[in-house]
## 1
Amino acid sequence: MRANPDGGKTMRRVAFTVGAVLISGVVTFTQNQINAGRAVPQDRGVDLTGNWNSGQWTEGGGPGGPNDRRPYDFLGMPLNEAAKAWALSHDESRLSEPERQCAYYTPVYHPFGFGGLNMWREDEYQTGSVVAWVIGGFQDFKPQVIWMDGRPHPGPLEPHRIEGFTTGVWENDVLVTTTTHMTQGMLHRRGPHSDRATLTMRFSRHDNILSLTGRVDDPVYLTEPMYVSKEWRLGNNMAGANRAAPPCTVTYEGVPTGDVKHYLPGQNPNVDEMTKMWGIPVETVMGGAETMYPEYRKKLKQTYKRPEVRPVGRTRQGNV
Amino acid sequence: MKYFHILGSAVGLAAILFVMQSPVRGQQGQPAQQGQAAPQGLGGGGRGAGRGGGGGRGNQPPQPARASAPYDMTGNWVSVITNNWRNRMVPPPRGGNADIPLNNNGTQVADAWDPAKDEAAGQECKYYGAASLMFQPTRLRISWQDDNTLRMDTDAGTQTRIFRFANATPAGATTATATSTAAAGSRTWQGDSTAVWESRRPAARGGGGGGGGAAANNAARYLKVTTTNMRPGYLRKNGVPYGERAVLTEYYDVFREPDGTNMMIVTIAVDDPEYLNQQYVVIAHFKKEADGSKWDPSPCSARW
Amino acid sequence: MMARIAAWTIGISLCVMVLHSTGRAQGQQGGANLEVVQVRPNFYMIAGAGAHIGVSIGPDGVVLVNTGTREAATAVLAQIRKLTTQPIRYIIDTSADADVLGGNATLGNFPSVVNVAANENVQLAASRSGSPTALPPELWPSETFFESRRYVYFNDEGIEIFHATGHSDGDSIVFFRRSDVVVAGHVLDDTRFPVIDLARGGSIQGEIAALNKLIELAIPPGPLVGTPPVGIALPTPPGVLSSMPGGTEVIPARGRVYRQLDLVEYRDMVVIIRDTIKFYMDKGMTLDQVQAAAPAKAWEGRFGATSGPWTTKQFVEAVYKSLMNEKSK
């Protein structure tokens, strides 16, 4: 074995080289960790902050209002046969079950239904990056958090909530959100949507009008996506802006706990109400995808009987 | 020289490490807008997508509207009626004015509606005027008549609307001016429509209004159309009126869903000092169709 | 030369190791296709080993509700070991199904295990020689009870075991009072209509009563139902379904974790189907006629099946026959 000819210099060089490599690795690793904690400033998109008011022009006028849907009214909903069967058995009194009184509406109804829309943004206080947009609650609607920080949706085994779980991204200045993990709920306050439904919303601001459109996909109850929409106008007055729904307390509304109100086959008294009031045939009132498209009017022309004047019917607020 | 190789190996290794970890840093630092995408619609990404759709803000000649379109809205579209169904798919009865902010004058006119009079006067197309046409069940055919004029045909009532872009719009231009100076005889059911590619953000600013640092980009524009000079018509097919002073403002959003469905959302806002006590706004959904095979023209009708 | 090569090699290897450790993702997958859901800081659900297993961990040790299938028991044990080094102290079986107590022999086979508890009908069914319900002795519970309510105290909380007779005559519903978690067993199944095992004493009335019991035990959030979450912009603390807090968590035999409103929907569905079948029976319809009328149609897309171990037809038949049994009493 040959002795070291250079008196140990090679070993020193090896030692220095290894040391330099290790130092480089440590420095780079540390920088990586520092960068991970520092969020890149985001484009915050378009300002949606404010108290938005609706003129109730599309549907409603509020529950019981003049343009409200009757209890058996599924016009323009792409319901499948299972949903129609559900609708035939559904009794609105079920909402008075003590177990259901605080079961607020899912996002499929509000913010497309009755009430105000108060939106604000939550920023991470150190970096200023947007964590979430929030839709404030209302009488029977829970606040909805739209997570903007890229967090994943919960897994398939995790529990659902009434308001679901929502994430959002900006697509060309339109806020596009995806909501999953909702509980079973109602379409237009009448038809069913299952807990497998997904809601995609688009918040598109034009001047001071917010066009809010939504698409509901439900493999359990819909044959194709259902589109909902609501137009909002920016209000000047924040006094009525809601952040939270008022507390909900259960009272006795005539339905005892465990009493499941429903209609047996052939006994739903509301099936022909739309026909009597508005001249619209029963098979149309039951909904279905074909009722959404212009060509369905050819069928209707033979079966629709327009009332001479608007019917005077009973709603919670009086006349139709 | 002695330690040159030490320095060289350290520098070289640092370079390797930087390159290797670049994907990791990119994921951590990525802004939340994962959805920020190419221009919407039908893959018309070549048409003026990205910045400077109109050139250098007055220094260059403005691009034609067609070239600066942020999306492609040409083709065949069908309305999807899921809301306000019984006021749209079928003609509602007289007095069914719910949810339209009519003033007293408007209510009186609506309550006195008689379709026979419209038929006798040859005014069956009153319900097919611009202010209500897009809210009807209808199919659309949209095409470029020329580089600055968009044409829209409807099979309901066989109507044609012409959207003229105010001029070849430079990037950052906003509201088109609307004038209402035409003589009464020149009014039409569809009026005069002026179009512009509008931005949702103040142009030429670094952000502001919550914009957080990014200037307007062409892909984020939408079509805004202002229509005046309309003949008096009906907002509903039961005589709910709008007058000749009505101004129609429409906003067109076009996008593609993840499943490939192309959608167009039209926000329709009507201002009418004669019959409405506030602005009336509704939203209509349209879905793109592969072809025009379901095109089914029907004449104007006062009763159906 | 060789020294330089060695130095470069060592250096690169070290750096690759460092990078790998920063990029590694932390998953929640157990072995053998198990999935673990952290329901509370001290409570987990293990899915994928048969019926869901509830795992309560605390200073006294581990309390298990159900042990899954025999085949998955080793993997379940390995998963528990990832969660804690505490010994298994107590096991509760919610019924006599092989996918519920199949792991008793493995998971109950430790000196630390005080007892494997179940309703006495579980042992009766398991020990019935020659019967299709018979199970090997090593799977039998070591502690049985017949009262409607049993209780033990582990890990600083009371644990109530309620007897139910929906799926079978030996069902138990287990309620962890401080954790506010209920393990329901086969009385509740998010993936299908409830399995009503008539041969083992199950009944539709018992099933509805069991679901009502679950609803009674589960408390939903409220009255402050509609308050925005506090600290939206703050970092989310790790684990425990933190993105969606609120209300009693109910672990079914299969499927996702339920809360009270989900139970109400499930109960309402079962009641309506029961009432509809009874309505047809009162009209004199035969089973075939009732099947043809599709009384469960409204929920078939969600809970029904046309093939597999429990179909819609089987469910309708079970309800029909259960109602017939009621009539003949």
## 2
Amino acid sequence: MITLLLFVFVLAMFLGFELITKVPSQLHTPLMSGCNAISGITIVAALLSAGKGNGGFTIFLGTLAVMFAMINVVGGYLVTDRMLSMFTRKGDK
Amino acid sequence: MSLGFIGFLYIVSAILFVLGIKMLGSADTARRGNMLSALGMLIAVVATMGNQGMSYTWIIIAGIIGAIVGGTAGRMVKMTAMPELVGLFNGFGGLASLIVAWAEYHSGRIGLTAFTSVAIVLTTIIGGITFSGSLVAFGKLTEKIPGKPILYKGQQLANGGLLALALLFAILFICNPEGMYFVFILVILVALVLGVLSVIPIGGADMPVVICLLNSYSGLAACFAGFIISNNVLIVAGSLVGASGLILTKIMCKAMNRSLANVLFSGFGAVTEGGGGGGGGYQGEANPISASDAYYILEAATSVVFVPGYGMAVAQAQHAVRELGDLLEANGAEVNYCIHPVAGRMPGHMNVLLAEANVPYEQLLEPQDSNPTMTMTDVAIVIGANDVVNPAAKEDESSPLYGMPIIEVDQARTCIVLKRSLNPGFAGVDNPLFFKDNTRMLFGDAKATVSELVAEFKES
């Protein structure tokens, strides 16, 4: 199991490096804020702590984590979309 | 839902993240890419909610609060305040990962093997540094904390000592995780302090690097949280973000011709103050002009390039600049905007502001596109940029900026610099550009000055 997880980790890191290398600098901000929203994936772990916690304190921590991760996810995607909606080509408007 | 089906949905969402990031790399597909990645997130959340035996009350309350807070902030924020908001969101992501690690440690249900203990400690340290570091970056960007580097004697020693302490606690914890609740709390505290102390010495203009790096950390924290609960979608999404953040960090460092270590530890700007600062380093006389002088120069120009910097963001001058650009185009000039990768307070900051002001994407150039034609450009207008147009970076080997790729506005036939005063820029380095024969200084607030020029064009 452990090797499998590490295997996935290493491959995903390489994939990440390959995906990003050729992004024009005009798009650096939306790319960064879009990635920032993706890092909110930790919400999955937070949901499991909050929803299947085996004690009051675990559930409390999980709930807190769900809230912060949710701010990250919703805010991050919204802001990125707002920014990208402004990038227009000549004659688009 | 069965575990197999949940696993399948996780694969779908991982694919959507990969496609989403790929599409974010090109202007035509970026918006759809972001939506795909949001869809991936939604699928991952729904799949997780479908686990057997979940209780939903608290999740729904917390989720709604988070969605309202994040949604409101994301909708209301001004484009000029974007760097600090992205920084803050990022910090919350890191905090969420830290809390998840704590919750899993507290519940103990995952079984504390050496592997999960390492994952818990790493998630906690990286999440903690991301959170408190992002808060300090937020403070610096909103100027609640001084933007200048804050340095003191023995700073690096203190930070090094703290890092060693964090490692020591980490090892203690990993050796015997069961009985080490106290040490775990200490790890959290040390990580939080470390985040504050490592961002405090970094100056405002180096923020693009810091924000990228913190972004990368928040991804890695999520990734390590995935190791704690053996969840592949966290590992995949987290490491994608971690990798992309590292690459952006590298690009930013390259654009400043400095190593990451130099950015993080040197307190650039504060140290050079004794040397080149004060404004006496370069001899010569600047040529100040009035707005109407500038109007005559621009009126005759057939090609104009705008070079914006952080000063344009501070003055909120982007709309006025675009209006001037449109008038120049109507007057028959070819207008472009050349943007240095590190101009502003986050990567691509100026691009976002000009896009907000409806400047078409094709007119936003990178230095390598714009520099070769600079000698054929009639007028280069520098708006609130300084270090990124400093010719000392090419000419003066003793300059701290030497070797940094710049926008060569000094090569244009005329260069008009909009600036509040002759003070050196963030780096505290004098700018010989101001004293060149083909440079004209137009003093004043960027927005007011540009509006004056717009008025001159409209009157004629």
